[in-house]
Structures are given as C-alpha cells and as structure tokens.
Amino acid sequence: MSLPAISERKSIRWLPDRAKEPTSTLVLTSRNLHFVDLRILKPLNPGEPDLPNEGGPCSRLEWAFSGVAKYTELPDRVHAEWSHEIDSRANSLNKDEGDLILQHDGSVLETGRMVNPATGEMTQYEEVWADLEVNITGGGSHRISIVIAVVDDLRGIKGKIVRVGQWCQGISKVGTVTHAERWHWVEREPDTATASKGEHQSDGDWERVAKIGGAYIPCSLAFVSGTHLNGAPAAEEGDELKVGDTTWRVIEKYVW
Fold first, then answer.
1. 46 near 38, Cβ under 8 Å?
2. What DSSP state is assigned to residue 219?
3. For residues 92 and 87, what is the distance between their CA atoms, to the nearest angstrom?
4. pLDDT tens digits along 21-34
C-alpha cells in the first residue's frame, strides 16, 4: 500500500511524433490503489469552455476509466498494470500497462504501447506525469481519501468515486453510456465562504469543474469529513449509501 496520490499528466508523445498535451488529465489513486482517470480534451473551437461543466458534449471526453492499479518493483523501473472495471472505450473488463521511471526533476516518465485514438493503431507512447500535493480541506487537521462504488448488474449500472484531499472524480456507466465529473475544493476567506455549490465546509467550498453526460454522480458523498448538513455522520468504510433507488458503498476510507 502507498499514500493516496493526485497525478496530473503533463504530456503525451506518440512515437516518433513530438510530445504535446491535448487534454486535461487527472488521476486520483487511493491507498489501496483504486483509481479514477479522467482525460478531457482541451477546447477545439472558439468560445468553448476550458472544461465542459454542463453535462457535455461527450465528444470532449477523450477517455475515462477506473479500476485498481498494481505496481511491481524492478531494478530500473516500476511495471504498472491498471485494470479497467469501467471504461468509456470498452464494455468489458480489460487493462493497460506501462513502465514508470522516476526523472531527475521529480516527474515520472511512463512508457508502453497502446492504441493511438487518432490512428486506431497500437503505438509506442511516452507520458510525463507530476504528482500534486495532497492538501487538507475545510479547516481540518488531516488529509482524507475515500472510495465509493456501485455495481448494479440488474440495471447495468457501474460507478466509482475517488476523493484524494482537495480533488474528487467520479465515473459511472449506465449501459454503454459513460458519465464523468471532476470536483475541486477551493479555499476561501472565512467571511466569504458560501454553500452555493456542493457540500459546504468551513473556509471553502467544493466546486464542480467538469461534467460530461447527464447522469447524477453523488460525488458529494465523499466531501464531508465531519457530519452531513442534516446532522448525519460522515460516511465510513463499509457504509451503504442510498441515492434514489441506487445503493453506493464506501469501500475504502483513509485519513492521515
């Protein structure tokens, strides 16, 4: 096990082309290696928002997937495998893998082979990742990571929410349609804090910064570290949380 992590991709290179970053890509990984990876295309046309935040368009979703990571230490690198329990590009379980090499500047170089969406062909790639600092939120004294998931085979619903510190991402798939959200805790001066978006905690607010698809993803279940606004206790590992006619389960919670 490792500490929860927030990883931001800085660039991708499809060999032999030059490196670039056409997306806003963020991966949240819990202590037990549950993750949500959202890759949202940057604006292609004038007037488009930096990130879509009103439920679409789905064309801006380059890739979204979640599952569990596995890392194997080798003498000169770390070999990583990421299971895809939910995948915007596939309707069955699959995985991808790559090799991770720590760079002198603290970034991580990932190398491997995967399908280039521009060509549809398996291609060698290089990605550069940077880990972001995990912050304490809401005037608390500890950092929080939480994983909440749902699997409803009868209705064809799968979903996972991962929060690490000040970032939270959720993905759900209903049938073959993928929905995704990204939220960020924004610090505010105590006298200007409001509860206009998401769940309110002292000295700041959770703000949704991206939403693709029309389904509701209850990311707010992961926001509260003390009690809910109605006085109910915050979610703990093992809790089952009813949202409409769907039951989400807290499968991991870690405070450090």
1. no
2. G
3. 8
4. 999 999 999 999 99
